Protein backbone atom coordinates (compact mmCIF):
# COMPACT_ATOMS: atom_id res chain seq x y z
CA UNK A 1 0.00 0.00 0.00
CA UNK A 2 1.20 3.47 -0.87
CA UNK A 3 0.05 6.36 1.32
CA UNK A 4 0.22 9.97 0.15
CA UNK A 5 -0.45 12.94 2.40
CA UNK A 6 -2.17 15.91 0.82
CA UNK A 7 -3.23 19.10 2.55
CA UNK A 8 -6.26 18.00 4.59
CA UNK A 9 -6.61 14.42 3.37
CA UNK A 10 -4.83 11.12 2.77
CA UNK A 11 -4.72 9.01 -0.38
CA UNK A 12 -4.12 5.27 -0.18
CA UNK A 13 -3.23 3.35 -3.35
CA UNK A 14 -3.44 -0.42 -3.24
CA UNK A 15 -4.53 -3.60 -4.97
CA UNK A 16 -7.68 -5.04 -3.48
CA UNK A 17 -11.35 -5.89 -3.69
CA UNK A 18 -13.45 -2.73 -3.78
CA UNK A 19 -16.45 -4.65 -2.44
CA UNK A 20 -14.55 -5.31 0.81
CA UNK A 21 -13.83 -1.64 1.60
CA UNK A 22 -15.51 -0.70 4.89
CA UNK A 23 -16.95 2.66 5.89
CA UNK A 24 -17.59 5.67 3.71
CA UNK A 25 -18.59 5.05 0.12
CA UNK A 26 -17.30 2.99 -2.73
CA UNK A 27 -17.59 4.16 -6.32
CA UNK A 28 -19.30 2.00 -8.90
CA UNK A 29 -18.25 2.38 -12.53
CA UNK A 30 -21.75 2.10 -13.97
CA UNK A 31 -23.15 2.36 -17.49
CA UNK A 32 -25.39 5.27 -18.46
CA UNK A 33 -28.53 3.11 -18.49
CA UNK A 34 -27.69 2.07 -14.90
CA UNK A 35 -28.34 -1.55 -15.85
CA UNK A 36 -26.14 -3.82 -13.71
CA UNK A 37 -23.40 -5.30 -15.88
CA UNK A 38 -20.00 -6.91 -15.55
CA UNK A 39 -16.67 -5.75 -14.18
CA UNK A 40 -16.77 -3.49 -11.12
CA UNK A 41 -20.54 -3.01 -11.48
CA UNK A 42 -21.20 -6.75 -11.54
CA UNK A 43 -18.95 -7.39 -8.55
CA UNK A 44 -20.65 -4.64 -6.54
CA UNK A 45 -24.11 -5.90 -7.42
CA UNK A 46 -23.24 -9.49 -6.46
CA UNK A 47 -21.76 -8.40 -3.13
CA UNK A 48 -24.51 -5.89 -2.30
CA UNK A 49 -27.28 -8.41 -2.84
CA UNK A 50 -30.41 -8.46 -5.01
CA UNK A 51 -31.92 -5.24 -3.64
CA UNK A 52 -29.38 -3.01 -5.39
CA UNK A 53 -30.16 -3.92 -9.03
CA UNK A 54 -33.78 -2.67 -9.20
CA UNK A 55 -32.86 0.54 -7.38
CA UNK A 56 -29.86 1.09 -9.66
CA UNK A 57 -32.03 0.57 -12.76
CA UNK A 58 -34.58 3.09 -11.47
CA UNK A 59 -31.92 5.83 -11.38
CA UNK A 60 -31.06 5.62 -15.08
CA UNK A 61 -30.23 7.14 -17.38
CA UNK A 62 -27.23 8.96 -15.93
CA UNK A 63 -25.01 11.15 -18.12
CA UNK A 64 -21.30 10.47 -18.52
CA UNK A 65 -19.42 12.18 -15.70
CA UNK A 66 -22.41 12.44 -13.36
CA UNK A 67 -22.81 10.63 -10.03
CA UNK A 68 -25.74 9.30 -7.98
CA UNK A 69 -25.81 7.51 -4.64
CA UNK A 70 -27.57 4.45 -3.25
CA UNK A 71 -27.41 2.56 0.02
CA UNK A 72 -24.68 -0.11 0.12
CA UNK A 73 -27.03 -2.88 1.29
CA UNK A 74 -24.88 -5.92 2.22
CA UNK A 75 -21.54 -4.20 1.59
CA UNK A 76 -19.24 -3.01 4.37
CA UNK A 77 -19.35 0.52 2.92
CA UNK A 78 -22.18 2.83 3.94
CA UNK A 79 -23.00 4.09 0.43
CA UNK A 80 -22.37 3.34 -3.22
CA UNK A 81 -21.73 6.29 -5.50
CA UNK A 82 -22.42 5.32 -9.09
CA UNK A 83 -20.67 7.25 -11.85
CA UNK A 84 -20.60 6.81 -15.60
CA UNK A 85 -17.13 6.93 -17.09
CA UNK A 86 -16.41 7.70 -20.72
CA UNK A 87 -15.89 5.03 -23.37
CA UNK A 88 -12.43 5.97 -24.62
CA UNK A 89 -12.32 7.58 -28.07
CA UNK A 90 -8.85 8.08 -29.56
CA UNK A 91 -10.19 10.93 -31.68
CA UNK A 92 -11.26 12.99 -28.65
CA UNK A 93 -8.58 12.69 -25.94
CA UNK A 94 -9.34 16.11 -24.41
CA UNK A 95 -13.07 15.37 -24.11
CA UNK A 96 -12.27 11.96 -22.64
CA UNK A 97 -10.06 13.55 -19.96
CA UNK A 98 -12.74 16.16 -19.15
CA UNK A 99 -15.42 13.49 -18.80
CA UNK A 100 -13.21 11.30 -16.61
CA UNK A 101 -12.32 14.29 -14.46
CA UNK A 102 -16.05 15.02 -14.04
CA UNK A 103 -16.53 11.47 -12.70
CA UNK A 104 -13.97 11.94 -9.93
CA UNK A 105 -15.03 15.52 -9.12
CA UNK A 106 -18.75 14.71 -9.00
CA UNK A 107 -18.16 11.63 -6.83
CA UNK A 108 -16.19 13.75 -4.37
CA UNK A 109 -18.88 16.48 -4.40
CA UNK A 110 -21.61 13.94 -3.72
CA UNK A 111 -19.60 12.24 -0.96
CA UNK A 112 -19.11 15.65 0.69
CA UNK A 113 -22.82 16.45 0.37
CA UNK A 114 -23.54 13.13 2.10
CA UNK A 115 -21.01 14.10 4.82
CA UNK A 116 -18.90 11.00 4.19
CA UNK A 117 -15.32 10.89 5.45
CA UNK A 118 -13.95 8.19 3.12
CA UNK A 119 -14.33 7.39 -0.57
CA UNK A 120 -12.87 4.46 -2.51
CA UNK A 121 -12.49 4.59 -6.29
CA UNK A 122 -11.84 1.81 -8.80
CA UNK A 123 -9.83 2.59 -11.95
CA UNK A 124 -12.83 4.16 -13.72
CA UNK A 125 -13.17 3.44 -17.47
CA UNK A 126 -9.97 1.37 -17.71
CA UNK A 127 -11.75 -1.96 -18.22
CA UNK A 128 -14.30 -2.51 -20.98
CA UNK A 129 -14.36 1.24 -21.71
CA UNK A 130 -10.67 0.98 -22.75
CA UNK A 131 -9.36 4.24 -21.25
CA UNK A 132 -5.56 3.74 -21.09
CA UNK A 133 -4.45 3.67 -17.45
CA UNK A 134 -1.45 5.92 -18.17
CA UNK A 135 -3.83 8.60 -19.50
CA UNK A 136 -6.14 8.41 -16.45
CA UNK A 137 -3.37 9.07 -13.95
CA UNK A 138 -2.72 12.78 -14.75
CA UNK A 139 -6.48 13.34 -14.59
CA UNK A 140 -6.71 11.74 -11.14
CA UNK A 141 -3.65 13.65 -9.93
CA UNK A 142 -5.21 16.94 -11.06
CA UNK A 143 -8.45 16.15 -9.23
CA UNK A 144 -6.55 15.34 -6.04
CA UNK A 145 -4.46 18.48 -6.35
CA UNK A 146 -7.57 20.63 -6.82
CA UNK A 147 -9.33 18.92 -3.91
CA UNK A 148 -6.59 20.26 -1.61
CA UNK A 149 -7.92 23.76 -2.22
CA UNK A 150 -11.40 22.98 -0.89
CA UNK A 151 -11.23 19.85 1.24
CA UNK A 152 -14.66 18.82 2.44
CA UNK A 153 -15.72 16.01 4.74
CA UNK A 154 -13.84 13.35 2.72
CA UNK A 155 -10.49 12.93 4.47
CA UNK A 156 -9.46 9.55 3.06
CA UNK A 157 -9.48 8.65 -0.61
CA UNK A 158 -8.63 5.10 -1.63
CA UNK A 159 -7.58 4.23 -5.17
CA UNK A 160 -8.35 0.52 -5.17
CA UNK A 161 -6.98 -1.44 -8.10
CA UNK A 162 -8.29 -4.86 -9.02
CA UNK A 163 -5.15 -6.02 -10.82
CA UNK A 164 -1.50 -6.00 -9.84
CA UNK A 165 -0.52 -4.45 -13.18
CA UNK A 166 -2.82 -1.45 -12.79
CA UNK A 167 -1.78 -1.01 -9.17
CA UNK A 168 1.88 -0.95 -10.19
CA UNK A 169 1.13 1.74 -12.78
CA UNK A 170 -0.71 3.85 -10.19
CA UNK A 171 2.01 3.50 -7.59
CA UNK A 172 4.83 4.21 -10.02
CA UNK A 173 3.08 7.32 -11.33
CA UNK A 174 2.22 8.74 -7.92
CA UNK A 175 5.63 7.91 -6.47
CA UNK A 176 7.33 9.82 -9.30
CA UNK A 177 4.84 12.67 -9.00
CA UNK A 178 5.12 12.87 -5.22
CA UNK A 179 8.92 12.87 -5.29
CA UNK A 180 9.08 15.67 -7.84
CA UNK A 181 6.64 17.87 -5.91
CA UNK A 182 8.41 17.62 -2.56
TrEMBL record:
<dbReference type="InterPro" id="IPR002589">
    <property type="entry name" value="Macro_dom"/>
</dbReference>
<dbReference type="Pfam" id="PF01661">
    <property type="entry name" value="Macro"/>
</dbReference>
<feature type="domain" description="Macro">
    <location>
        <begin position="1"/>
        <end position="178"/>
    </location>
</feature>
<protein>
    <submittedName>
        <fullName>Macro domain-containing protein</fullName>
    </submittedName>
</protein>
<dbReference type="InterPro" id="IPR043472">
    <property type="entry name" value="Macro_dom-like"/>
</dbReference>
Amino acid sequence: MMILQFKGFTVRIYQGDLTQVAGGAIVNAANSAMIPGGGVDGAINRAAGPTLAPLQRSLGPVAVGQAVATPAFKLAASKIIHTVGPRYDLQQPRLMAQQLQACYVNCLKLANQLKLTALAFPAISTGVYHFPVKLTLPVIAAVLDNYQQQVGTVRQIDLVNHTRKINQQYQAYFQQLHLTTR
